[in-house]
Amino acid sequence: MRLFLKEHIPLLIVYLVQIILVGTLFWLGSESHSLSISLYSAVLITVLLFVYLTYRYLSHRRLYRRLSETAGTLDQSQNEIGETPLADALHELLENQFQLYQNELYDTRQRLALHTAFINRWVHQMKTPISVIQLTLQDLDVDGEVEGSLQEELDRLRKGLEMALYTSRLDRFEHDFRVDAIPLRTAVQEAVADNRRWLIRGRLVPDIRIDEEMAVYSDAKWLHFMLGQVITNAVTYSAGRGERVVFAANRRESETVLEITDQGVGIRPEDLARVFEPYYTGSTGRNYHESTGMGLYLVREVCSRLGHRVEIESVPEQGTTVRFIFDAPLRSPI
After folding, report:
1. Cα distance between residue 308 and residue 49, in whole Å
2. pLDDT tens profile 188-233
3. Residue ranges of the domains in the chain?
4. Is the entire prediction scored with pTM above 0.85?
5. Check: CATH 3.30.565.10 for 177-331?
6. How would you classify the pairing of strands 330-331 and 309-315?
7. Cα first-last separation, the chain
């Protein structure tokens, strides 16, 4: 109704002007200057206007209702909006636009699927030469420092390929996860073991303070990936400064909280609010060539899709704490 009235404000203004002009002409044209003829014409015009507006509102009420409401889904835009010529023309326009949108969306999804398939195939193909290089490196009699440097570069390649693979899988996340009860200490130990060479090179000791019986609902593969990203950051920004990376878990009301704390360079307050943005490295990350600005972004995205939360606290020159918050703490099924 509000939209209907707003649309007809110009008509109502013209109507008022018409009444004044016609009434004035009738009044001036009568010899006795009687107001009865002017009032009669005003009443007649008003009745005709009321009939017209009533007919127009009743015939277009579905159209005005649709224009006043926000569609919850794309399919709702295809519902009938009336039988008047204006409603039919608008419905036909919306159908054509919807079809064009569907075609463009289908093409985009096809290109995205091909791109994802290419990335997945490329990553798996790259794993073979890396494995060959790894075996060759083990057989070569090279200086220990040289071997360590080559091994570090191989590990960086693996990390880069892993990030590319999981980034491509994120677009089809709903087809690539399975939620189970996971013993939290075991998950952390596996992530630490997978990143042991990084910790050793950074001369950092993992300090795991998690109850054996503590468990969470999550996806084991994605949880392992998130822990790996946080461990990699902890090593990158703590090497040569800290002595240990602390993994601690506790229960907070109906939640299980996992905290990973390093003793690294920390994050400046002005950068802290943006560390979860894609490709944002901040003033600290610019000093490290390994920083891509994607690790914490992926961690946040995976957390949100699994129903977890992630928080971060940091004090410059003292260290950083990344906090994972899981709903409904459980006892380990083992």
Report:
1. 60
2. 999 999 999 889 888 899 999 999 999 999 999 999 999 999 999 9
3. 2-99, 110-170, 177-331
4. no
5. yes
6. unpaired
7. 63
